[in-house]
């Protein structure tokens, strides 16, 4: 049997991803004939056809799909092994790949980054803001070390550790002295115009479910994909929005308006891939995150 090298595996995966040799060769910076020759070497070594070249698009055969699945996992494990070898236990250097859902960039990412830099200035940080589904997929693909999102139903292979309870409130830009004396009945929102996060945010789904359950039909005048945009809009218009209390508390020009019944709470959680290698940087970040949410007085999880 011929000797297999990692490049053979990477070449096969590139062809499978691009559906052909031309674009794969461009990405790999090798000639197309060389790429084709290397894939044939791999097929001869394994004694099986891995690619179906009969159509306009090159596809994995059944055997190729099985091999590619194992190959991806093997490359992921090798990448983890490399990080483990280079991991510095004294935290004089290191790197952390963090994924968060967008609302946390408005009140949690800044303090966490400041605390990480203060405690461990040698650790670099790569921050990705995306949806919870993407955070979990990236964790499973070993593209992230840890994620901050919400507890609940997760993709297989994801484990969640509760951090704190997040409370949402209706928010306006009116002076706090003008806030209603008691909670506002949710059905009174039929007369309100709201600015809310767009539908691709988990928070928006949480809000919509609350309105639907209580048969409230406020008028959604503005939709935005940015918390910062919402806070600016609410401060400068009569529109109201719904924000986590932690954000409202940091904006003195925003006034929370309790609803009756109140919006349901959510549990914020640290996410990671089960059985994934945890670097010293990851362990340090996990520890300081628990310290920070406790020191800031966030409501403990149920």
From TrEMBL:
Gene3D superfamilies the UniProt entry points to: 3.40.190.290, Winged helix-like DNA-binding domain superfamily/Winged helix DNA-binding domain
Keyword Mitochondrion on entry: no
The entry's keywords: DNA-binding, Transcription, Transcription regulation
Keyword Cell cycle found: no
PROSITE patterns linked: HTH_LYSR
Matches recorded under InterPro entries: HTH-type_LysR_regulators, LysR_HTH_N, LysR_subst-bd, WH-like_DNA-bd_sf, WH_DNA-bd_sf
GO molecular function, one term: DNA-binding transcription factor activity
Ranges for domain HTH lysR-type: 4-61
Pfam families on file: HTH_1, LysR_substrate
A GO-annotated cellular component: cytosol
NCBIfam families: PRK11242.1 (NF008416)
Family, per entry: Belongs to the LysR transcriptional regulatory family.
Protein name per Swiss-Prot or TrEMBL: DNA-binding transcriptional regulator CynR
Organism: Actinomadura verrucosospora
């Amino acid at each position: 049997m011929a000797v297999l090298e990692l490049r053979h595996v990477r070449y096969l995966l590139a062809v499978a991803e691009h559906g052909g040799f031309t674009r794969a060769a461009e990405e790999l910076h090798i000639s197309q004939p060389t790429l084709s020759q290397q894939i044939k070497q791999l097929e001869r070594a394994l004694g099986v056809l891995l690619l179906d070249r009969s159509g306009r698009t090159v596809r994995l055969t059944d055997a190729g799909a099985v091999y590619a699945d194992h190959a991806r996992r093997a490359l992921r494990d090798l990448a983890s092994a490399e990080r483990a070898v280079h991991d510095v236990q004294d935290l004089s250097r290191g790197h952390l790949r963090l994924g968060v859902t967008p609302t946390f960039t408005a009140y949690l990412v800044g303090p966490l980054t400041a605390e990480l830099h203060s405690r461990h200035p040698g650790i670099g940080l790569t921050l990705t803001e995306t949806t919870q589904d993407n955070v979990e997929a990236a964790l499973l693909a070993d593209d992230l070390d840890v994620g901050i999102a919400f507890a609940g139903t997760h993709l297989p292979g994801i484990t969640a550790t509760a951090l704190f309870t997040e409370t949402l409130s209706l928010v306006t830009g009116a002076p706090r002295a003008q806030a209603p004396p008691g909670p506002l009945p949710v059905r009174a929102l039929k007369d309100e115009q709201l600015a809310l996060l767009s539908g691709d945010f988990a928070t928006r789904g949480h809000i919509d479910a609350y309105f639907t359950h209580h048969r409230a039909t406020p008028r959604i005048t503005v939709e935005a994909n940015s918390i910062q945009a919402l806070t600016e809009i609410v401060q400068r218009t009569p529109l109201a929005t719904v924000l986590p209390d932690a954000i409202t508390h940091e904006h003195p020009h925003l006034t929370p308006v309790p609803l009756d019944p109140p919006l349901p709470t959510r549990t914020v959680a640290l996410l990671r891939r089960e059985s994934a290698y945890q670097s010293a940087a990851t362990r340090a970040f996990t520890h300081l995150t628990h310290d920070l949410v406790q020191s800031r007085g966030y409501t403990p999880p149920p």
